[in-house]
Design a protein that fits this description.
CATH class of the largest domain: Alpha Beta
Order of helices and strands: EHEHHHEHEHHHEEEHEEHEHEHE
Oligomer: single chain
Distance between the termini: 47 Å
Number of domains: 2
CATH architecture of the largest domain: 3-Layer(aba) Sandwich
Largest sheet: 6 strands, parallel
Radius of gyration: 22 Å
Structural class: alpha/beta
CATH topology of the largest domain: Rossmann fold
């Protein structure tokens, strides 16, 4: 059983999971995709209100009790939320990590960083004191990061994709590829007789619009250059509604969204932001990558792709040449 905001539940239901939606008034459908377009101050206020709901509200504890939950699998990407659930619900917890962190990026270190950020947000200091009041006798708020580090943790990736030795605790397990099959989500007609280059920047491209537009402009320039030089390639590009598509050319198909998993088998290359899910899908399909990281864990994934000889990294350039 999944518990989450409406947008997360929609994704989980598409994969066949039962869900209980929470915090719909704060996160109405479509709010995650639109979040990157909102002013930074509005994003900060929404983040504080989210923590407030977990701190003071009964929505999540009541939902867990109603469903008879005996074990919680919490995201290591949301350490403050995970710590509050640990405090308020008194249930066994396992951390799930969907990225390959750097050596010093423990769950506890991420908790400390997020708490530092929260302390500088409007209303953050008062909220931290309310969180302190939830701690049982003998437990300091500052120690919750260490408590999260002590929990069992599953990393949704094979250890072989790591590029540097990692010191992992005894409770940390790499779970393998952890890829869900994509079933019948569409296809792109035509052009399969020639090499096909796919380009997509992931579901969070709108959170990094300037960098995403730079990468998409480079992809369109590469398609134009390939056509000018007589290379019989086909480019299939997902724009995520970030840019206007150039005039359609014989070698270019522009979509808002790319049915990536269906198109990867047999593709000649994938231009990607380097999200771990896409990297794993490309490895499984044996498709070389050009990784153009936008943010978060993606620069480190680009480094791993280069390290293992799985592709190249695109950092960007200031030149207007289509060869960049």
């Amino acid at each position: 059983m999944c518990f989450g905001i409406p947008d997360a539940c929609a994704l989980a239901r598409a994969e066949g999971f039962a869900c209980v939606e929470l915090f719909g008034s704060l996160w109405p459908p479509g709010s995650v995709a639109a979040r990157g377009e909102r002013p930074r101050a509005a994003q900060m206020i929404q983040a504080v209100r989210h923590v407030e709901r977990l701190c003071d509200g009964d929505e999540l504890p009541e939902a867990l009790a109603e469903q008879g939950v005996a074990l919680i699998v919490a995201s290591s990407y949301a350490p403050i939320e995970s710590a509050l659930i640990l405090l308020r619900c008194a249930l066994p917890m396992v951390m799930l990590t969907t990225e390959l962190r750097e050596a010093d990026e423990t769950v506890g270190a991420r908790y400390d960083l997020r708490m530092s950020i929260l302390s500088r947000m409007p209303g953050g200091p008062a909220l931290i004191e309310r969180m302190r009041g939830l701690c049982p006798p003998g437990v300091e708020l500052e120690a919750l990061g260490s408590m999260l580090d002590a929990l069992p943790e599953g990393i949704a990736c094979p250890e072989d994709l790591e590029d540097l030795p990692r010191a992992r605790g005894p409770g940390v397990v790499h779970l393998g590829p952890c890829l869900c099959p994509r079933r019948g989500r569409g296809q792109v007609e035509g052009g399969r007789a020639r090499p096909r280059v796919l380009a997509a920047l992931g579901s969070q491209a709108r959170m990094f619009p300037e960098r995403a537009r730079e990468v998409l402009a480079a992809v369109f320039s590469a398609a134009a250059l390939a056509a000018a030089e007589g290379l019989d390639w086909e480019f299939v590009v997902a724009t995520a509604k970030l840019v206007e598509a150039p005039a359609q050319a014989d070698n270019l198909k522009v979509l808002e969204w790319l049915p990536q998993a269906e198109l990867l088998p047999g593709a000649a290359a994938m231009i990607t932001h380097g999200g771990l899910g896409t990297v794993k899908e490309c490895v499984l399909a044996e498709v070389p990558m050009v990784v153009a990281p936008l943010g978060r864990d993606q620069p480190a994934n680009a480094r791993r792709v280069v390290h293992h000889g799985l592709g190249r990294a695109f950092v960007g350039c200031r030149s207007r040449s289509p060869r960049c």
